[in-house]
């Protein structure tokens, strides 16, 4: 009985000492700081800085977009129809829905997230089309409607992924 108690005590003390740091070894935090991290963290993108780096305002100026809009009478037409005052009324909603924060979040999201979402929607739609039999007009109409809805989700997801990837990675000014 004494041997079993001594063996148990030895095991418990060995187990407890396994969780204490020996004095002769460096602390883990100093070793870990120099170690390569297997997970690559995505760097945050400052949207206004990217607009400056990509020289978006210069591209708009060189393309003459505002002059073309003025010559086409677009702004005066919009003004006559009251569209500018309608936009002005919507500005508080943009604050309420935090559009600027949402845009920053979208820009800082990995493009692969949007591509994966588009792939998942397309795959789900393909599964739905395969699962629903084509034996009635209503079933075919349902397939067409869900296909159109899926397309209206997939196209913006892919476009947003491409735009987000461009904003995150491009280093040369854009040209319009």
Q: Looking at the structure, what is the overall shape?
A: extended
Structural class: mainly alpha
What proportion of the residues form beta strands (DSSP E)? under 5%
Mean pLDDT: 79
Helix content: over 70%
Helix and strand sequence:
HHHHHHHHHH
Report the C-alpha radius of gyration, rounded: 30 Å
How many helices?
A: 10
Find the count of extended strands (DSSP E, 2+ residues).
0
Uncertain parts: 1-27, 29-34
Outline the biggest β-sheet. none
Distance between the termini: 87 Å
At a glance:
The chain is mainly alpha-helical.
3D structure, described in words:
The protein is mostly helical. Helix content is about 75%, strand content about 0%. The protein has ten helices and no strands. It has helices spanning about 1-20, 30-35, 45-55, 55-65, 65-70, 75-80, 85-95, 100-105, 110-130, 135-170. The termini are far apart.
Short descriptors:
mainly alpha, extended, 176 residues, disordered N terminus, 10 helices
């Amino acid at each position: 009985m004494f041997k079993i108690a001594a063996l148990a005590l030895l095991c418990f003390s060995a187990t407890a000492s396994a969780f204490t740091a020996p004095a002769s070894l460096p602390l883990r935090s100093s070793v870990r700081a120099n170690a390569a991290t297997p997970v690559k963290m995505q760097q945050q993108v400052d949207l206004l800085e990217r607009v400056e780096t990509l020289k978006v305002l210069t591209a708009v100026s060189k393309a003459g977009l505002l002059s073309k809009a003025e010559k086409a009478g677009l702004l005066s037409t919009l003004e006559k129809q009251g569209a500018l005052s309608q936009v002005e009324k919507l500005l508080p909603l943009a604050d309420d829905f935090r559009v600027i924060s949402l845009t920053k979040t979208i820009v800082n999201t990995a493009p692969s997230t949007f591509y994966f979402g588009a792939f998942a929607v397309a795959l789900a739609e393909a599964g739905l089309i395969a699962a629903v039999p084509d034996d009635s007009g209503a079933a075919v109409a349902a397939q067409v409607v869900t296909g159109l809805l899926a397309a209206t989700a997939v196209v913006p997801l892919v476009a947003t992924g491409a735009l987000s990837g461009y904003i995150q990675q491009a280093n040369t000014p854009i040209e319009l």
